[in-house]
Structure formats: structure tokens, C-alpha cells
Amino acid sequence: MPPKTHYFTSEPFDPATARQIEVVLAGRALAATTASGVFSPSRIDLGTAVLLRTLARRDPRSDLPRRGLAVDVGSGWGPLALTMALLAPAVRVAAVDTNQAARELTALNAERLGLDNIAVMTPAEARSLTRIDALWSNPPIRIGKDALHDLLGNWLERLAPDGHADLVVQRNLGADSLQTWLVALGYPTERLASAKGYRVLRAAPRAG
Q: How far apart are the C-alpha atoms of 126 and 6, rounded to whole Å?
């Protein structure tokens, strides 16, 4: 049996642990490949599902730019990035993750779906991304508050003037205090939904 790895590590995925799962993304029933060592390999995790359902009720097509740049921060095997690419084929989608296996799986799933508008990136490679029109993320809360604040602050300062970031965070892991922190930092942040113990937050760019 292969050793377990933490999904914050950066190792290639082991094809021996690969599995096919059935998912619904952008209203389409699809098969996706996942593997051990990535976040939520057996299904779309509950937080991501809450975020996708919330945006679907709002018609996410209207929230995505017609063209421009969309980013999935902490992409895992790709459910958010794949959804953005399916909904907005003229938009460039960056799927960013520290985990090499996650990046490889996102690229594999994008290729199998014929999505040529997804670029898979390490955080270092993504430093050049600016003027982000839409950012979706189920951020890695368990890295700790200070690290999370650094992560989100770095990404939010790169939003385009008309851009926004949609985040899903567990209520009992600090969603409300995170919203308060974002507002205090100058990012107007509203709660779009609260379901299954999660909050969906939308942050807008700082004025000026």
C-alpha cells in the first residue's frame, strides 16, 4: 500500500492510486480523475459544493467575465477551475496549487474535457498574474490564520477594479472573523450564503 501524503506536500501523483469519480460541474455529468494525496479525492468536498451551488443559483455565467482572467486558488484536482473553464470558454483560467499531484490531475482532467483555456501553475509561477477578474477559492484554512491572511491579502490586492473573489469558509473555522478582517483591510465583503456550516463570502477590490 502506498504511503499516505498530506495534500499540502508537493509530489507527483501515483497512477496506482488514481480513481475515477462521477461529478456534476457546470450542470454537466462528468467523470474526473483523482488520486491519493490530494484534497478530497473521493468526491467534491462539502465546502466546494456549497460554493458551486451558491454561484449556480446566482447564474455564475453573469459573475464571470466574458474575457479576461479567472483564478482558482488551491485548485486540488480541479472542480472550481474546470467549472470556470466550462462556463466561460473565452476566459483564461489559472489553477494554482502547491501540490504537484493536484496540478497534474487538474491538467489531466482539463485535457480529457478538451479545455484548452486552463493553465496549471505553482504559486511561484502565479506571482505574475494581475488584474484578476474572478477568483474562486476554498482556501486552506488549516495553514493557520497568519498564513491564510498573507495568502488572501496577496491575491486580493491583484483583483481588477471590477473583479471579485468568492470564498467558502467553515463557520466554526473562522468565517465570520475572516469577513471582519477583510472589511477592516479595506475589501468590501458580503455574505452570499450560509449553508451546511459554511459561509460563502464575496470580496470586492479596495477602493482607490
A: 22
